[in-house]
Fold these 4 entries.
Entry 1:
Amino acid sequence: MATKVKSQQNAEIIADKNSLKIPNHVGIIMDGNGRWAQARGKVRSFGHKAGSDNVDRIVTYAFDEVGVKTLTLYAFSAENWARPQEEVDELMRLLEVYFKKFIKKVISNDVRLFVMGDLSKLSDKLQKIIIDGMEITKNNLSHTLNIAINYGGRQEIVYAVNKLINEGKEITVDSISSALYTAPFGEPDLIIRTGGELRLSNFMLYQGAYSELYFTPVLWPDFDEKEFDNAVIEFSARNRRYGKI
Ligand code: FPP
């Protein structure tokens, strides 16, 4: 009952966007697919499929209803290759299916697709789908959907610094920012982690320096519109000082 009342209140609050500070850029660490499946007596891949379906739900909600401009989703970390081959294969398959579907919808939405990470380790087929998707959507300006694949925050910093060195540029806080994958759309205002763990797991380490962090025990496939509202409401109540008083 209490949950229902809270959810109704949240729906009213979110409907009145003027009363809330809406984060421009939200990063999400989508954790808990495996446990969600195990709780149902299913294999982990079943959870990843449910997690993939939830990506659609949250992307649509965040862009169309809440007014978030950029979403960065942590889909596959540079460390996830160490998972059983069967699970890695299923995640790659789900990504392929997702991007194909995304590209088909391009005409009806105004979302730019961006993929960040070291893509060279992905199959040629997946690389091509990603490159085509980024090219086809590059002039969509309303929203950016940024998917992190074979991504690590430390690796990204190393990549950015090497890029600057190769270009003979000075290494400064700003020059590193401008060489990160996220340079075109900037830093996340809010980072959400589902699944109950209280850590960043190598996600946007440089860009997240002043991001507000929101942790919830809710497993990713169960993280619905109401849960997203809760994160935005909490963000809206935070006082961002960036080290000042
Ligand atoms: C973490 O849950 C989740 C992942 C490693 C993969 C996230 C992938 C998806 C949500 C689906 C594909 C993505 C897109 C963009 C279509 P876990 O497996 O570590 O869960 P656990 O902590 O319960 O074991």
Entry 2:
Amino acid sequence: MERYKKAFTDEISRALELDTHEVAKLVKTPEAGRGDFALPCFPFAKQLKRNPAQIAEEIASGFADHPMFEKVVAEGPYINATIRSAHVISNLVPQIRNADEHFATSDKGYGQTVVIDFSSPNIAKPLGFHHLRSTMIGNALANIHRAMGYTVRRINFLGDWGKTFGLLAEAYDRVGDEAKLNREGIAYLLSLYVEANKLKVSDPGFDEAARQMFLKQEQGDAHAMELWQLFRTISLKEFKRIYRRLEVEFDFYEGESHYRDGMDEVIADIHKTAGTREDQGALVVDMPYADDEPPMMLKKSDGATLYATRDVAAAKDRYERFQFAKSLYVVGTEQKRHFEQLKRALSAMGCEWEKQMVHVNFGRVHGMSTRKGTVVFLEDVLNEARDRAYEKMSADSADRNIDIKAVSEEVGIGGIVFGDLKNLRASDYNFDWDEILNTKGFTGICVQYAHARCCSILRKGGGAPEIGTADLSLLTAAEETTLVKEIGRIPQAVEVSANELEPSRLARAVYEAARAWNRYQQAGNNDKSLRILVEDEKVKTARLALVDATRIALERGLTLLGVPAPDAM
Ligand code: ARG
């Protein structure tokens, strides 16, 4: 569709002697029934010294007999353009099929690196449901940038350093149970943490001992480090089990501990550049703060370093290694101040590149509880989603040949992931189990069904026809044109999602494509001549080519979002 938009704007900018980019920026998708592109003309009125309706008229008449547009009309100050159906079908269908798994890719990001810090949980605690957002928004953004040709570096900045691990190690030394730790893994670490907090209250010396333990870790003491290493290994093993289910991978597990030896150096650097000062015994960055703003702390009064210090070190390290064009931090809105301060401090240090760092913030999820209760672990949510999908599919599915067990994992997890990504990332949303598996809504399962349906029709129809064998001029139904246009919008949605760091834009486009597919199916149910597997071989072949293009587009869209696309459901 990009190509049509370009033709539209080129034509207009030539006629009006305006800059193409200026025109392109104003092009919109009109409401249904008004064509494919709309352009308001009032922004040009002043410059051209004519009224907008007049300009619209002029432009419209210039499009007479255009090979790509069947209708370009002025409606008051607007121009509405409709692409020729035959043109878009005969171009896009083979183009999508030729591209296949490269559909919706480009080289716009070629030669540029994007670093994405996402998921980044704290160790010694099971992944919570809230970790899903960072993990899946980050994963989708990574996939999307990759599709645009960027070099992508996926980093999991584990929270694996800090006083908590001194606290845990001290508690383990006192009351730890090795057998239990080996048996229960991270769940045991969580209970040990509860235990440690009790010790803090009951034993006046405990807190101080825990602090000493962390200082020992910072100094590399063998025993203190051994315990820390144990907690980390156990945690990572469990995190990876869940990442595997989500099909999420990282290039680097470089947590806070990765920077533990560079702390003095980074503090000296900040001291020399931005400047540091003492604040109530702590060392803070010396930069201007708002009245009620707590300063950015680098070192506590006992000498222990902090999260912010390690983030400064990590940011510099990432820039040195990757010279990133963008460095994204997919972290909840709660950390807004942290990232603002981080960027300000780097700027004060003379690191101009901090402008390329973006806090990709996201809102909270309300109303989540599982059958097990309200303390929500991600793994329980994924299990429940799988089980609910299983129940639904055992009841609904007519096709007994499919492996319901395997598919319900894909449908359940896909439902949760899509249900998350479809929301504007910065907004909060309400989680609702009934919505997740609603086949008729703006849901993952709706898109997955559409995709599986394409696959099953192709199987029934004897496979996808060879490219070039179909006479696409036989695709004349309005539903066919709409479907082609909707799948054709996916590449642009990928680009917009990357530029706006907003996977919801792609989720919406993929869903609209699935909806157009459903309407096509519906039309075939109402009117037998519109069925795909009709008698007429030529018509059937043309329609199967369209089904194949749809399958590719949906599969690509889902995959970029990180949602599985089963081929039978
Ligand atoms: N571990 C942190 C948390 O769970 C998130 C880290 C995000 N990344 C970063 N570079 N600060 O809150």
Entry 3:
Amino acid sequence: MNILILGNGAREHSLAWAVKQNPKCSRLLVAPGNAGIADIADISTINIENCDEVVKLATQEKIDFVIIGPEAPLAAGVSDELKNKGFLVFGPSKAAAQLEISKSFMKDVCTKMNIPTAKYSKFNDLVSAKKYVSKEGVPIVIKADGLAAGKGVTVAMDLTTANKALEDFFNSSNHNSDTKVVIEEFMEGEEASFFVLCDGLKILPMGTAQDHKRVGDGDTGPNTGGMGAYSPAPVLTKKIEENVIKEIIEPTLQEMKKRGEPYQGVLYAGLMIKDQQARLVEYNARFGDPECQALMMRLGAQVLDLLLATSTSNLEECKINWADDHALCVVMASNGYPGKIKKGSIIDGLQKLTISSSQMCFHAGTEKESGNIVANGGRVLSLTARGETLTEARSSAYDMVKIIDWEEGFYRTDIGWKAII
Ligand code: AMP
Ligand code: GLY
């Protein structure tokens, strides 16, 4: 099969790495990719949010299967356009991806189906939003109602922060009369990510993971796209998982079907767990990054069969062969991330890493320049390792981190702390 993967993160590098190991994959093309992906796949530098460019590439390269990694092409309708042209695609329709794209859409589905989630209200003017916050008190959570790469959420512990987030939102140049802010009750607990493959008819749970959203050790500082992850997530016990399927996933899929938009792809539920009860924080219409890197290490080549079965509505015949092990991923990011970063710094030490099926270095924001690998984004590398225990996986991942010689980068030193303590 000729396979095309869309995306340029470490998530897509890990997907490409797993897919490539499956004998069904005869040719792998990734757009736009990065310097690490270029070592294992052909690269095309098209704009993956432009439907015409993607369809043209898939046609020219005689692609049999397209895997969409990030949310932006889903929001641009790339999945729909490819399917209209007869391509087999992994990635939900734009309408089904509203579960991620629009926080207010997702909340409406929750209300309709009585799905456990934070109480909320939505506003399109500053005065009413501020009034609501004063009435509800802090802590409170302010969310822009659209895609924001994990950075559109403010968890406000005091009124000044809450009001500033609202002012920034309503005064921003992106704001117009259609954009809304969602204000939510603050939920306490431990967060976990749960992945489910949905083929429009059947579902197949695809594992659990925990991410580290805050930039600093001890979960301090602003939210990021994710600074590290591990899989499985011990907090998500079998019992909680069963309840999540019954109380959250199934009602959501039922409602999507009823709305004429059956969900086909991976559904990623961000959960808050407290006292053995899970509530929904958010949905994503794609794999998590960096959770995907840990999942792919544990799944390997079978991933391609699972994604194909999802896209052809054949999940009923599928079973996942889980290795009884753990994987942990440490993200290295450019100094300044999630704020302003400088591009172009040289990353040394990569050639000293011993790469294997239990130690991988997945690239995100990297490019090749005069023979060097240089950083060109916020999150840059995902050092991911497997181990019989999480402690082993962690020390193996940090062994790799130590080999990287990159002064302009940083990483968290405590990935896995909740599960390991
Ligand atoms: P979201 O983009 O909705 O996942 O939000 C990003 C992060 O903000 C989540 O992973 C949580 O860490 C935090 N967060 C979002 N909503 C809430 C909430 N209602 N209560 C507590 N924390 C939240
Ligand atoms: N790791 C969080 C996300 O992918 O949204």
Entry 4:
Amino acid sequence: MSKKIESHLTEDRVFKPSKEFSKKARISSMAQYKRMYQESIDKPGTFWAREAKELGWQKKWTKALEWKAPYAKWFVGGKINVCESCVDRHVREGRGNKAAIIWEGEPGENVTLTYRQLQREVCKFANVLLARGIKSKDRVLIYMPMVPEAAIAMLACARIGAVHSVVFGGFSAESISDRLEDCKAKAVITTDGGYRRGSIVPLKANVDEALKRYKDVETVIVHQRTGDKVTMKKGRDVYWHEEAAQVSAIHEPKGFDSEHPLFILYTSGSTGKPKGILHTSGGYLTGAYTTCKYIFDMQEDDVYWCTADVGWITGHSYIVYGPLANGVTQVMYEGAPNFPDFGRFWDIVEKYSVSIFYTAPTAIRAFIKAGDEFPDSRDLSSLRLLGTVGEPINPEAWMWYHEKIGGGRCPIVDTWWQTETGAIMISPLPGCTPTKPGTATLPFFGVDAAILDETGQECRADEGGKLVIRKPWPSMLRTIYGDKKRYRDTYWNDYDGMYTAGDGARTDKKGNFWIVGRLDDVLNVSGHRLGTAEVESALVSHKVVAEAAVVGRPHEIKGQGVVAFVTLKGNAKSSDALAKELRNHVGTVIGAIAKPDEIFFTPALPKTRSGKIMRRLLKELVETGSVSGNTTTLEDHEVIAALQKQVSGK
Ligand code: 7RM
């Protein structure tokens, strides 16, 4: 039986950037991209040294790269202070009065921090950390909502060489204590609470709960966001504003080794305990900086907005480190996209004249479902560039994003990358790459991406296989914190000296990369290996379907049968006739082998808190009738409870 992943969807629409966009873009022709790409692969040291130099090092490196697979060291011997590079450098270069962060709270208030103000806040907080005995390489857990203080806390850690580990504010007390135990954190930075969809999330109370299990935290610093009363344990818990009032606003940033650890970010993976992905300083910052510069085409007068949370890698690389290293002005928003209604994002775009907007396909599908009246009634003409991340974007959502949000004029960068890769790996460059709905297109500079089959041979065009990266890149993870064996086993075991991403993919004849989904999710129907993304895209291309998730279920004859979970748009009604119509629709778009055996209509799909569909749970549900596996990363437990009834009752 063939182990190749098949691919059946074709997409012929091609969108090229307008002449006007290209003319002003940093990379304006494919010839320029190809020239630079070639150099980045042939002479990575030369290429990356030129980019890294722009970040302002305290001491130059002696060697750009030292590679002993699977361990890389970038800019060996160099010294840099990541915080200085993101903040002080801009004040020095004349951007002191430029807005760094324009923050809007969910209830509606807003605050602007210039680069000079940010510098002041960061220096004060660095002094607070030092006064509390936090030293270089100590781990500090950050559990905060989307407030500027979250970025300030991260930057202040970086400034003194402490290693931050941000835990998403939607996670439970148990997730906090698991992570505290794994990284042995000395301090926690949190807030009294945070606003989400009009109510208050009790963050400090969750920290208190977690600290009943993990007892080695010496300091808890509490920023007052809501003003709600919280329990403060004497000697351990202190208020941010009280501490900050007692320290100097001056702090000299010391340079740290390029390979000094910058942060640990936990990623749940599909099974087992969360992996602490470790990123270091010089290489990581170079990756975040360079991708922002070329992929988001960041320019001096842009207003950039990434809607992710700082608790995810996207928030680290594309809210904190990348944009600030570029000295850009950015919007930061605290709350939910649908508070008070689905017009909120578009109000923010209009109000602050956002020019670059970066969000996730799951959000786009939610907007489509909510109705066009929300974007239609706002002025979105300030936008010039759109981006997506997190999942394959189905062509329907791509087209809607292009037309409704981008007014047909904005290039879309579909960016493929991972917590582990630290920065974007595969993406169009907006001023030159011809885009097609559904593909992340071509590898970024320095990224030697390929699709391999089981034997390690490179797949031909349109043949599916495993996505690998064949050469080290500056922002790659350095290890799994405290678990070198797991690091090797998870990422470096499939092919000699190559990084395996765990995604199935194919390239088309033009070399564009199409991600077909996580390898654990690939279906095997009568020996045909199908990517979940394709079958889901086919379903979503039907006019009444808002969202779909597809999994395999054991089948006596076929090996696996296809089962689909479908969410309908606005007023569409589910029926047996519609299920039949959808099956036939998949048959027409892909072929008979991909037709679902069964379709469940559901008002919502189970997702992680960052919006990725949790197919693993659906698979368990159709196989066993219930879900007993790990559901700690699940966004909404009601969804699974309802589906359980539906599936077992059928
Ligand atoms: C940034 C982030 C990583 C996984 C990755 C893919 C999927 C992300 C895309 C995508 C298709 C994309 N980090 N993924 N971006 N699939 N097209 N543009 O999401 O560590 O949380 O997830 O997400 O499966 O391996 S992550």
